[in-house]
Amino acid sequence: MKGKNIVEEVRKFVEEESKKPTAHYGYEPYPNHLVPMRDYAVQLAKRLGADAEIVELATWLHDIGSIMNGREDHHIIGAKITEKKLKELGYPQDRIEKVRHCILSHRASQKIKPETVEAQIISDADAISNFDNIPGIFMAAFIYENQSQQEAKASVRQKLERKWERLVLKESRDLIKPRYEAIKLLLK
C-alpha cells in the first residue's frame, strides 16, 4: 500500500488511538498538535523538495508511543509501533526505515541527529506546532505541573525559546518568526 491510501490509513489509526480512553493525553493532542504539525511539515516538504509521503507518515506517527504508552521513551516505542503498523499495511521496509528515523530523531532532548531532510522537517515541525498551541502549553503547566501563573508564564516562555533555538532549517524560522516575536513580546 502506497500513496494517499497509506497516509490516510495511518492518520485514521492515530486518530482512533487518540480517541481511546487509554490515550495518555486524551484526544486534544490530535487536533491541537498533530494537525497543525502536519500542515507545517507538508509546507516545509514542498519548499525543500522532501519526500512528502515519508514526512506525512512520520508526522502522524511521531507521537504514537506517547499516545499509547506515555511520554517516556516515546520515540523508541513509537518507532516500534510504526514499524509494526506499516508492515501490516504492506509498506516497503526501506521506506519504513526512513519513517522510523524521523520518529527516533524528532526529540531534541535525545540528541539523535536528524540525518535526512525529512527527519529535519519532522523535528522542526514538531517544535513549530507549539507556537499554535499556547493554551495547551499553559494547560499542561497549570494542570500537569501544578504551576502558579508566574511559574507558568516563565516556563511557557522558556519552552518556546528552546523550541525556537532547536530549529534546524532556515525555512522553519522564516515560517514561524512572526509568531515567535509576538510571543516573546506577550510573555516578557
Architecture overview:
It is a single chain. This protein has 188 residues and is mainly alpha-helical. It has a domain at 4-132: Hypothetical protein af1432 (Orthogonal Bundle). The protein is 73% helix and 0% strand. Helix 9 (149-166) runs antiparallel to helix 10. The protein starts with a helix and ends with a helix.
- The low-pLDDT segments are none
Strand-residue proportion: under 5%
Structural classification: mainly alpha
Which fold does the CATH topology of the domain at 4-132 refer to? Hypothetical protein af1432
Count of distinct strands = 0
Relative helix content = over 70%
Rg for CA atoms? 16 Å
Separation of the first and last Cα atoms = 49 Å
Mean pLDDT: 90
The CATH architecture assignment of the domain at 4-132 turns out to be Orthogonal Bundle
Number of helices: 10
